[in-house]
Design a protein that fits this description.
about 30% strand, eight-stranded mixed beta sheet, elongated, alpha+beta, 2 helices
Length: about 160
């Protein structure tokens, strides 16, 4: 055994119910920037973030974050089972932002009625969760590194006479 940890991947299925509402909004820049940084460091198409205080799970993708209730909202269709999406944040293309520290425009898609309080709580819970995840990565970086020693050129460079 080479000492590295085994990796495994879990496949999850999510169902998108009929939309109950949609609203234009914005999210704090540090939250969206942090989510995108965590996703980029993960090196995959999506990132699963458990929001334990709420028993919810956030699934982060480049253009969307979906939220599912880990305790309920399971469905079956055509022999496939999966969780029901409760709420989603959809982001416009990255080029539409005015600045990295400006609030990030998004559309909030509601798949169940009266989701305003859920959205506010998700923002409140995710902010410290993302900050803590980024801090842990700084203290305990993961991944492979390749350090190659730099060898200076052996032949001297000619210097012009003045």
């Amino acid at each position: 055994m080479d000492g590295s940890m085994a990796q495994y991947f879990i496949r999850e299925t999510f169902f998108r119910p009929a939309e109950q509402g949609r609203e234009a909004s914005s999210l704090p820049a540090e939250l969206v920037n942090g989510l995108r940084l965590l996703l980029a460091r993960r090196g995959r198409d999506c990132l699963f973030l458990p929001i334990r205080a709420m028993q919810y799970q956030a699934v982060v993708e480049r253009r969307e974050v979906i939220f599912v209730d880990s305790q309920g909202g399971y469905a079956h269709q055509d022999g496939v089972g999966g969780r029901l999406i409760r709420l989603a944040w959809c982001f416009p293309p990255a080029g539409e932002r005015l600045a990295l520290d400006a609030p990030v425009p998004c559309e909030i898609l509601h798949y169940f009625p009266a989701q305003g309080e859920l959205h506010r709580r998700l923002v409140a819970e995710l902010r410290p969760l993302v900050a803590a995840s980024l801090a842990r990565q700084r203290l305990h970086p993961t991944g492979e590194r390749n350090v190659i020693p730099f060898r200076p050129r052996q032949t001297p460079v000619p210097v012009a006479d003045s």
